[in-house]
Amino acid sequence: GDEVDPTILDIINDPNRDVVVLFPSDDAMTLEEGMKEIEKRRLKREEKAERTNTCGINGGGGGDEKMQQKIVVMFLDATWKYAQEMERANTKGEHWPRNIIRVKLSPPTHGQGNDKEKDG
Q: The whole model's pTM is what?
């Protein structure tokens, strides 16, 4: 339907979550670029948390907390035309965060990801 589950909206609009939508739009980046962007954002959040923490305590989580962070991955399960409409409506309707990371999957180029070629 046209309704969006409020729980989903809360999850994807949480500024402490990294949200990736798999959608091959013009502004989509490769999955590798998306992962690098997530790492940059996490570092910024850590730096901000350290600056605002006046006691010098890191909240008790330390490095373990970083390892447990999850990435929210959204897939638009629809026909191409309807997926485009959903993406456009959610972006213009401001349901999705403005800084959502759009990634596209690309087939491997010759020689990448093909173990059979390496084995001979």
A: 0.67
